[in-house]
Design a protein that fits this description.
Length: 120
């Protein structure tokens, strides 16, 4: 009786295997990094500018966003076109300077800027 035939896969030298692995990894990075970057690109932003003499606190939807010092501007990015939010801005002396619901269309009409001023 004859022994059954066995199949032997060709062996690559270690240097060739490493080159293939590095090339495959490089190609994956070239393809995946731009896709991830595009997926994580922040949406449009709105800038808040404090034109008062006091520190103000900005809330969106009842949630603390940040504090602004007098004269400071800070933005919030990643907004969606269907964005509608209740904005409240309170000065450090407790005065409510802004308390209204703002839509994306209003933000666009304000050139993506919400300017906080003294009451009156």
């Amino acid at each position: 009786m004859t022994a059954p035939a066995t199949s032997v896969a060709p062996q690559l030298c270690p240097a060739t295997s490493q080159r293939i692995a590095r090339t495959a990894a490089g190609l994956c990075c070239l393809i995946l990094v731009p896709l991830v970057w595009l997926g994580c690109e922040p949406g449009p932003a709105v800038d808040y500018t404090n034109q008062t003499a006091l520190t103000v606190t900005v809330y969106e939807g009842g949630e603390f966003v940040f504090e602004l010092q007098p004269g400071e501007t800070r933005g919030v990015a990643g907004l969606k076109k269907d964005w509608i939010e209740e904005i409240m801005v309170v000065s450090s002396d407790g005065t409510i300077l802004l308390d209204e619901t703002i839509t994306w269309e209003q933000v666009e009409s304000m050139d993506h800027r919400i300017v906080i001023t003294e009451p009156g």
